[in-house]
Amino acid sequence: MTSPKPELVFDDLPKGRKFTPLRYEITPRLVNAYMDTVGDRNPLYWDQAKAGAAGGLVAPPGLAAIYARLSYLQENTMPSGGVLAGQEFEFLKPVKPGAVLTVQAEVFESYLDPKDRKRVNFLIVARDGQGDRVCVVRLYAIWPK
Fold this sequence. Notes:
Blueprint: E1 22-25, H1 28-38, H2 48-52, E2 83-91, E3 100-112, E4 118-127, E5 133-143
Antiparallel strand pairs: 1-3, 2-5, 3-4, 4-5
């Protein structure tokens, strides 16, 4: 029996903390599940003939960001009561099916705001097998008390 993962508390989130990188493969199954869930049926994601003229199949850009939150919650659980205050996505490079991405989260701000709320802001970068940045996510959270 495995022990439950500990909660990720505010005191464990100082500015500059980096989390263990998360690796995952962009598989055809993942691409299909994403398309089915989101409803985006762009032929560049699934039709080899149409995608060939554009350089081959690509994965939906959102797949490079899909595990952003998990990248800092691999070894911990999220305490209840937090609020996602905002997210920004920057897609920098197309990702091909079969690519293995490495996603790493870092705390870029951790502070008490004027209303005495705990704020934690993450910078989460997804890189491809060549180490190139393919997606950057900025995630803004109000951490539970």
